[in-house]
Design brief:
heterodimer; A: 113 residues; Immunoglobulin-like; 0% helix; B: 113 residues; mainly beta; seven-stranded mixed beta sheet
């Protein structure tokens, strides 16, 4: 079942600008992760935030989590052409077993040079 | 670095054929997963395995089966391929014990004609 829903579906910005993507989910979670997918390739893990964390940073990435609103945001600062990709949020449900993450449909980000 | 290798990058098969998609990981991960990815639908979990010879159905197992005879290898089988199984298939693996990050292969784009 689909858990996360990213917003917007597509985003086009100029190089150097900041890009913000949002993710909403439905059930209680253990953690939320963001992945990037370059065109026609597999997904690459970017960052994980646990349910008891509110904000996390990794290089030019900043992730926030609001469990009361069941939402997360991914901010990419000082965007580069190489950031052009699709970005997916994925959730691990609280109390879930060994099964995989549940992914959203993704935000397609285009960085204009 | 963990490497997840999918045997074929592109595959073209005919309706009714039996199709095998192979996935091998080199990091001794216990858990392996098969997802399919379709435009507008995101990633959907087909099957996963948390140990050798163990398998669990995901969200969309109909028309698929899996095999895990060795820890490093997880095969997805389309018993009788149909055109609605044309899709990108992604294999992933992860370890247990709190490490939630999934490692993905590069994907197999399957076309069923």
């Amino acid at each position: 079942s689909q858990q996360g829903e990213e917003d917007p579906q597509a985003l086009s910005i100029q190089e150097g600008e900041n890009a913000t993507m949002n993710c909403s989910y439905k059930t209680s979670i253990n953690n939320l992760q963001w992945y990037r997918q370059n065109s026609g390739r597999g997904l690459v893990h970017l960052i994980l935030i646990r349910s008891n964390e509110r904000e996390k940073h990794s290089g030019r990435l900043r992730v926030t989590l609001d469990t009361s609103k069941k939402s997360s945001s991914l901010l990419i600062t000082a965007s580069r052409a190489a950031d052009t990709a699709s970005y997916f949020c994925a959730t691990r449900e609280a109390g879930g077993g060994a099964d995989g993450l549940t992914f959203g449909k993704g935000t397609h980000l285009i960085i204009q040079p | 670095d963990v490497k997840v290798t999918q045997s074929s990058r592109y595959l073209v098969k005919r309706t009714g054929e039996k199709v095998f998609l192979e996935c091998v990981q080199d990091m001794d991960h216990e858990n392996m997963f098969w997802y399919r990815q379709d435009p507008g639908l995101g990633l959907r979990l087909i099957y996963f395995s948390y140990d050798v010879k163990m398998k669990e159905k995901g969200d969309i197992p109909e028309g698929y089966s899996v095999s895990r005879e060795k820890k490093e290898r997880f095969s997805l089988i389309l018993e009788s391929a149909s055109t609605n199984q044309t899709s990108m298939y992604l294999c992933a693996s992860k370890t247990t014990g709190g490490r939630e990050k999934l490692f993905f292969g590069s994907g197999t784009q399957l076309s069923v004609l």
